[in-house]
Design goal:
Strand content: 5-15%
GO biological process, one term: signal transduction
Number of helices: 10
Strand order of the largest sheet: 1-2-3
Radius of gyration: 27 Å
Biased composition (Basic and acidic residues): 148-174
Domain TIR: 1-73
Largest sheet: 3 strands, parallel
Structural class: mainly alpha
Order of helices and strands: HEHHEHEHHEEEHHEHH
Shape: elongated
Region (Disordered): 148-177
Protein name: TIR domain-containing protein
């Protein structure tokens, strides 16, 4: 048992009343603590006592550690917490010193912690109530630029050759305008390909990958951005990127960024995230 624990990079303990009274589990986890092995406690709890908490030796060993809370045994919560646990394990593991990349700047972690705190969405009707952002449903569809441009060109040609006589009265033109608007929307946006959040950069061919997210007001563009920054902060999305920065365009006003000066991305990031660090 000791060899197995001491050769491990991370120890995950799934805490229940049975786990707590097991002598072998106690020896195993105590060995990990004594050997300075990283411990990730997962709170399964007691189905017959929802208020159950670890006590005695288990409380002492796991004190101050951030639990993965799995008390809710619903399929959705189990999937979410499994992803969280995998991300935590990846984050906890450290390769040998000679293989490690340089540590990221301290402010990277400050930004990550900010995203982790912003883990709930306020309700529109009653902002005093909120729900976990993990329960947010993000429905994305991708339209490739080339395909969209070809359809827009086709619509312009149809528009050029199919307009009614300008001498006709306004009433005769209204049905045409209505059908034109509907046709444009359906022709350009009717054919879409559903895509998962994790895959939105995969079709970008260049070194600099750009994706434009479109949607009417209130449909969830800002929520989507909050959702991806939160998942990145938890290490279960786009972990290949050291830093993910969310800048709200509505804050880039002349009053906050006067004209006559060029602002670099680092200037904007400093003002938005560290306004008092001068």
């Amino acid at each position: 048992m000791a060899d197995g624990v001491q050769n491990a990079a991370v120890i995950c303990c799934f805490m229940t009343p049975d786990y707590q009274i097991s002598e072998n589990c106690e020896k195993e986890l105590q060995c990990a603590a004594d050997s300075k092995i990283r411990i990730i406690p997962c709170m399964l709890g007691d189905q017959n006592n929802t208020e159950w908490k670890p006590s005695g030796w288990l409380k002492l060993v796991t004190a101050g550690l951030n639990y993965v809370k799995i008390r809710d045994h619903s399929d959705l919560n189990i999937r979410l917490k499994a992803k969280e646990l995998i991300g935590r394990i990846k984050n906890q593991y450290l390769p040998p010193a000679e293989e490690r990349a340089p540590a990221p700047p301290k402010f990277f972690e400050s930004i990550r912690e900010k995203y982790l705190r912003e883990n709930r969405i306020k309700r529109i009707v009653n902002e005093e109530k909120s729900f976990p952002i993990e329960q947010s449903y993000i429905n994305l569809a991708m339209i490739e630029t080339k395909e969209q441009q070809e359809k827009e060109k086709k619509l312009k040609e149809q528009d050029k050759h199919g307009r009614p006589d300008r001498e006709n009265d306004q009433d005769n033109r209204r049905p045409y305008q209505h059908n034109e608007i509907l046709g444009t929307y359906e022709e350009i946006y009717g054919t879409k390909t559903s895509i998962n959040v994790e895959e939105i950069f995969q079709k970008c061919k260049g070194a600099n990958k750009k994706v434009l997210v479109l949607g009417r007001a209130g449909i969830g563009k800002s929520t989507f951005c909050q959702y991806v920054t939160y998942r990145w902060a938890k290490h279960d999305l786009w972990s290949e990127y050291e830093l993910l920065v969310l800048i709200h365009l509505r804050k880039l006003t002349v009053s906050r960024y006067p004209q006559g000066k060029e602002y670099s991305p680092s200037d904007i990031m400093k003002k938005e995230y560290f306004p008092y660090d001068d």
